[in-house]
Amino acid sequence: AQKVTQAQTEISVVEKEDVTLDCVYETRDTTYYLFWYKQPPSGELVFLIRRNSFDEQNEISGRYSWNFQKSTSSFNFTITASQVVDSAVYFCALRPNSGGSNYKLTFGKGTLLTVNP
Amino acid sequence: EPEVTQTPSHQVTQMGQEVILRCVPISNHLYFYWYRQILGQKVEFLVSFYNNEISEKSEIFDDQFSVERPDGSNFTLKIRSTKLEDSAMYFCASEAGFGSSEQFFGPGTRLTVL
Fold first, then answer.
1. What share of chain A is helix, strand, coil (3-state, %, to 5)?
2. Phi and psi at residue B86, in whole multiples of 5°?
3. At residue B72, does pLDDT exceed 70?
4. Cβ of residue A54 closer than 8 Å to a chain B Cβ
5. Torsions phi, psi of B98, nearest 5?
6. What pLDDT score was predicted for residue B100?
7. Which residue of B has its CA nearest to A49?
8. How far apart are CA B42 and CA A49, in angstroms?
């Protein structure tokens, strides 16, 4: 069974603050992928990043960075110098990569980030 | 850039009515999915479809639900007799194939059951 836990239900910050969104996962698969999606108020799911379980290197993309730690089963997401446009619900998700014909995504409950001006 | 499309964007229906939600996946993709998101909650897997058959379905996907790929381009989700609790955003996703690792999501259809 797979499980993704996003313990932070809501976070509120002031613009330009850094903010970290936590994600902890459980899986029995030896190989898997982790994802982050952004869901703005308009409702669509915007893909942010995919991380293969083999690759524990941290990644930075502009103001976004991700910290993958297999030892603690965590895949945290940091936004540096937050902006009002970052306000959204952020979902962490997990899927197996073990062959077969089903690669369903298991999502966490999401973290609502509000960035205030 | 190719994208997944879904129609309609918003569907309002009366309880007990049948609805069909339509999706056009990215052409040459092989795996197709439906997910559901009740307002304010997480995105939940409903069903996956590969090689013209269901490969996995969740406990949510009961006999009231069915999926079809009628013409090689559309991928539909039918709810036979809608209930109030079917009100949700329904997302379609497609994936190129084994090892591609990324599912491309459509913009969603918001279903409101009155």
1. 5, 50, 45
2. -80, -10
3. yes
4. no
5. -55, 130
6. 64
7. B102
8. 18
B103 with B35: CB under 8 angstroms?
A: no
What's the pLDDT tens digit per position in A71-111?
999 999 999 999 999 999 999 999 987 655 568 899 999 99
- SS3 sequence of chain B: CCCCEEECCEEEECCCCCEEEEEECCCCCCEEEEEEECCCCCEEEEEEEECCEEEEECCCCCCCEEEECCCCCCEEEEECCCCHHHCEEEEEEEECCCCCCCEEECCCEEEEEC
Under the banding of pLDDT at 50, 70 and 90, the label for residue A65 is very high
Given an 8 Å threshold on Cβ–Cβ distance, is A105 in contact with B107? no
Type of residue at B30: L
A44 interface with B at CB cutoff 8 Å = yes
